[in-house]
Design goal:
It is built from seven helices and eleven strands. It is of the alpha/beta class and 255 residues long. A seven-stranded mixed β-sheet has the order 3-2-1-4-5-11-10, sandwiched between helices. It has a four-stranded antiparallel β-sheet with strand order 6-7-8-9, with no helix packed on it. Pfam families: Methyltransf_25 (PF13649).
């Protein structure tokens, strides 16, 4: 099953509490810290386009790529409704596309952790490398292994109501410590209270957590100069309190 194949229609409602504008502002600040404040920006693994639209509203010349055709369709519709011209296309983050000469590439909401092998992670980094101009900056987030090991996995339930819909999502996780992976088994009950109908969606998301030394090795092998790691939405070192971390790297200027 393709990840997000059945999950996509409910994605935005499930993450309606996610502050895309604040996250975009944070990423912009980190890009400025590394010398990139404007220009062309590629959102690699753009989902339904909410980060991409936020960047475009700040003046960036944005493009977006995502594996899910339904996510891309939603991103295109959303951009059109906002009066923004953003070239979104369906594509694999691990396969180099036509995008070139970008000032920045961002890959948000743990796209790097959907790459569950070192080869896949390196392929994703090479896609970003091909899209960037020399000296361009790559910003991405990932699951930090230290926090996953410290906290362990647990079953989580999330309920969202937006009449007439009520969504109940149960996330049960299986941890394979030898492979450094977590399989998140989602069961989603989509209830239409007006029609008195319930639809069930089951989808498994196979994820990999990473450590900074692994990330840096893959970046170096892909032509990047690793620059920084930190806990998400902070400038503090990754720590056991947060699964979410991010990294910043620069495309080497040397041939």
């Amino acid at each position: 099953m393709t990840v997000f194949a059945d999950y996509a229609p409910w994605y935005d409602l499930l993450y309606q509490d996610k502050d895309y504008a604040a996250e975009t502002a944070f990423v912009e600040a980190r890009l400025r810290d590394h010398g990139v404040s404007s220009g062309k920006l590629l959102d690699l693994g753009c989902g339904t386009g909410l980060h991409a639209l936020a960047f475009a509203r700040q003046g960036w010349n944005v493009a977006g790529v995502d594996l899910s055709d339904e996510m891309i369709a939603r991103a295109k519709t959303r951009a059109g409704q906002a009066g923004l011209s953003i070239p979104f296309r369906e594509g694999n983050a691990c396969e180099t596309g036509p995008e070139r000469d970008f000032d920045a590439v961002v890959s948000l909401f743990h796209v790097a952790s959907y790459q569950t092998s070192r080869d896949a992670l390196t392929a994703m980094f090479r896609t970003a490398h091909a899209a960037l101009k020399p000296g361009g900056v790559f910003f991405f987030d990932y699951w930090y292994g230290g926090a996953v090991l410290a906290q362990g996995v647990e079953t989580r339930v999330k309920v969202i109501e937006q009449k007439p819909l009520r969504l109940t999502r149960i996330a049960q996780s299986d941890h394979d410590e030898q492979a450094a992976t977590v399989t998140v088994n989602y069961t989603l009950f989509c209830e239409d209270m007006d029609r008195a109908t319930i639809r069930r969606v089951d989808e498994a998301h196979h994820m990999r957590y990473w450590f900074p030394f692994e990330i840096d090795a893959a970046l170096a092998a892909s032509g990047f100069e690793p620059a920084a790691h930190a806990a998400w939405l902070t400038q503090d070192a990754p720590n056991s309190k947060s699964w979410a971390a991010y990294a910043v790297a620069r495309k080497s200027v040397a041939p």
